[in-house]
Amino acid sequence: MWDRHPVSLSLIHMLPDVAARRGLALPPLLARAGIARDIAPDRTVARAQVATVLLEMARHAGEAEIGLDLAAAADPSRLGLMGHALFSGRTLRECLHAQAAHMPTFQRGVSLALDERDGRAHWRHVLADSDPEHARVLNEGIAGFVVRALRAIAGDAGGAIHVGLPHRALAPMRTYEDKLGSDVSFASGAGVAVSFDAAWLDRPNPFFARNRLSPEIAALPLPGRGFLIDDAGLIEALRLIIAAAALSGTLSLPDAARSLGLPPRSLQRRLASLGTSFEMLVDEWRREAARRHLADPALSVGSITRLLGYRDPAHFVRAFRRWEGEAPVAYRKVLLARNGN
Q1: Is 317 helix (H, G, I), strand (E, B) or coil?
Q2: Full set of structural domains in the chain with CATH
Q3: Residue 290 near residue 320 (C-beta atoms within 8 A)
Q4: From residue 173, how far is each of 19, 142, 192 by CA, in Å?
Q5: What percent of the chain has pLDDT above 70?
Q6: Most buried one in 17, 275, 279, 333, CB count within 10 A?
Q7: DSSP 80-116
Q8: Among positive and negative, which fits the CA dihedral 50, 53, 54, 55?
Q9: Are 11 and 42 in contact (CB under 8 A)?
Q10: Residues in a beta bridge with 162
Q11: CA distances (Å), origin 259, targets 38, 250, 314, 332
């Protein structure tokens, strides 16, 4: 599955604060998905890129369930028309319908459904073309955000809510239940499913009179129906991904393609049309990085080998001879002498 559906970067507006509280540097996490340092609300990226950033954050924080904490830190007013629409109806039912109507202003490729059976309301949110395991942190964030909104609008801090998630549980069940305040099941079908007492649907919305849309929010652009990174943006995104992935040993075209929501063959063809390839981009980045690192006498050749994503120093030495016509040690000796070291 290749999730290239466009999404506003305002979706992850809470990342800087959540990352800072955990002592995580955000730029390397963004780079892993080919996203530059800033999270501007008027920028659009492929949803697969957002899913990649969230997975990287969960991995670096050592918190599989971090999506639920991101949901708790989310500010609906920073989610554009969709965020305001969710609190715009006279009742919870109207709020959910308004959210569905305005979702295309926030992201594409989303199916939202609400139905009632046997006294229960069933709300489902499905991301088209999305791999459940790749999007697991994103889906958990969606679930946490919706449960929080339901309780805020319906005015019931208790009540029996059940959340179904499409992926495997990667943290203890008790952790999910405590953070969501609901029963939870996993691998329960497509997308996120939330069920609750159908009587909640017609409860009045306490935010109705207070929810007014600012002109700035109303003026935000609508994401296009398809998201395609332009040629310059594609090369820059891949360079960011290569630099971020080298140390973790995940320098591969399939991995980079997945981060961008592209089929590997499509990425190969696009790069070929630009007169390059993934392997050439990796080689160029390694050559530039090797020169830079060799100028630092504190870094051993073994350390530089690992920084460049090589498993064996011999592979680095062989590549460097191809680039510069001499071994790294000899190159460094001349370079340091030239610089007076």
Answers
A1: helix
A2: 63-205 (no CATH), 231-338 (1.10.10.60)
A3: yes
A4: 24, 18, 16
A5: 91
A6: 333
A7: HHHHHHTT-SSBHHHHHHHHHHHGGGTBSSEEEEEEE
A8: positive
A9: no
A10: 183, 195
A11: 18, 11, 30, 35
- Degrees (nearest 5) of the Cα angle 66, 70, 74? 170
Pairing mode, strands 162-165 and 183-186: parallel
Running DSSP on this structure, what letter comes out for residue 199? G
Q: What is the DSSP letter of 79?
A: S
Residue 45 CA to residue 7 CA, distance in Å, equals: 6
pLDDT in tens, 123-176: 999 999 999 999 999 999 999 999 999 999 988 655 689 999 999 999 999 999
pTM confidence score: 0.84
Distance separating alpha carbons of residues 141 and 68, to the nearest angstrom: 5
**Residues with Cβ < 8 Å from 310, sequence gap 6 or more?**
316, 319
Residue listed under structure tokens 């319906």: 154
Q: If residue 46 lies in a helix (H) or strand (E), which one and from where to where?
A: strand 44-46
pLDDT band at 37 (very low <50, low <70, confident <90, very high): confident
Which residue's entry shows tokens 């239940």? 177
State both tokens at 276: 């390059």
- The amino acid occupying position 39 is I
For residues 7-38, b (16+ Cβ closer than 10 Å) or e, as one string? bbbbbbbbbeebbeeeebebeebbbbbbbeee
- Eight-state DSSP code of residue 37: S
* Nearest-angstrom CA–CA distance, 241 and 141: 24
Query: Residue 180 and residue 297: Cα distance in Å, rounded?
Result: 51
pLDDT of 207 reads: 82
List beta partners, residue 269: none
Q: Which run of H or of E encompasses 271?
A: helix 264-273
Q: Is 118 left (phi over 0), alpha (psi -120 to 50) or beta?
A: left
- Alpha carbon distance 317, 258 (integer Å): 30
pLDDT of residue 1: 64
